[in-house]
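Anyone able to model this chain together with fe (iii) ion?
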Amino acid sequence: MPSPLEIVRVPVLSDNYAWLVHDPGSGTTMALDPGEAQPLLDAAAARGLAIGEVWNTHWHPDHVGGNAAIVAATGARVVGPEAERGKIGQLDVGLGEGDSATLGDHVAAVMTVPGHTQGHIAFHFAGDGAIFTGDTLFAMGCGRLFEGTPSDMFGNMQRYAALPPETRVYCGHEYTLSNGRYALVAEPDNAAIRERMVEVEARRAAGEPTVPTTIGAELATNPFLRARSVEELAERRQAKDVFRG
Ligand code: ZN
Ligand code: FE
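re: yes, here you go
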């Protein structure tokens, strides 16, 4: 058994979460979705870690904007979706469905999860019970459909729903409060959402994060993971796009 991964949440930009992931066994460290560089460089320096890799889930600037400066400062290699190579500068290793990415002794299965962007990938460390979902699965929400269809996102949700419920979900944004306000409207009879929102509101009021979440918590409270059909997901995604909670 490899020693457990150390996963540090690094807030960047206005509401993004980047992640610093360290394998103590091998001494390897990667920065995942660095929307800007300095907070990741600082978080690594504060812990005496050297960033050796940058992993990206998709090409949006709030997830890759810090790549170049991290590479310049550390010589890190960049790992991300092969399908978005043209949009992510400096991609050293391009990955897609069925590939794996390794951090020391830890292996992440790469899932292609289209819809938010067409080439979007997620990294599933099954042995660690952790998944990095970028902008596909959020706490009580899902990503906007910029480059895909409700059917794409429904397929992603089906795959996430099948993961072990204790799997921790590390997503790309702190959107939980706004997602939860919509969830209350989408499922007014769902007591689990109401209970969760009490906690979410308290945490946010105290300036605390609500991420990571778990697959189990999302199965109980996420109206997109819980959508029973492509049509229901489509309806909910459209309603959330214009929702003003
Ligand atoms: Zn995005
Ligand atoms: Fe984003």
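The chain has a mean pLDDT of 97.
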